[in-house]
């Protein structure tokens, strides 16, 4: 009987110690290595995060910025634990990739909006487009659909109704001027702008290549609902460091920085 009682007491002590250890680990959370590792795409997202990092440092929060040149790896890296969070994408793109790849990520906050624009090195007005003109657009699913909605908004085509960002070039129901649509990697489109007649370019890549969405686009998205977001792994959604990061990002200081730095080409979306 004494032996059984002693065994039970020892088991209780082990369980208590394990629980205490687990609590310490949970408290460390995303700051287990002392800093937040945040993924962004190069350009405005990175510039904004540099401002956030500067403000965070004043509050004792260290941020390591990891910059990417594409839209796929920031989510893959986050899902695999190489990042603590990321800030670079619109919700339709996030939803599509998260579901398609079963990444286990969730949205936790809104950030900024980048209106998509139409650019050209050959014409200054869409009325100058000739029959059969070549039109470049992003090749990834949601940005492709977004670009097609932009072309429809500009009066170039008509799409099958009700598809929204899920539209593809196969869903064009009216193309009276026989435009040729060429899907390219989003980041490469600015470099290939001279090889087509017009192109839809995401503002972060446009600005990264020296183009101003406000001044250089010949048509720009109207009343965009494509707000960018902050994403994390689901298990970290209540992390205290994450809450601190969001509070800093959505502060008046960052809002002023965005408005003064990008002159309407990037708009606070929170």
UniProtKB/TrEMBL annotation:
The keyword Lipoprotein applies. It comes from Oceanobacillus luteolus. Keywords: Lipoprotein, Membrane, Palmitate, Signal. It is a lipid-anchor. It comes from the Bacteria. Its main location: membrane. It is found in: Membrane. PANTHER family: D-METHIONINE-BINDING LIPOPROTEIN METQ (PTHR30429), D-METHIONINE-BINDING LIPOPROTEIN METQ-RELATED (PTHR30429:SF1). InterPro entries: Lipoprotein_NlpA. Belongs to the nlpA lipoprotein family. The keyword Signal applies. This is Lipoprotein. Residues 1-26 form the signal peptide. Coiled coil: none annotated.
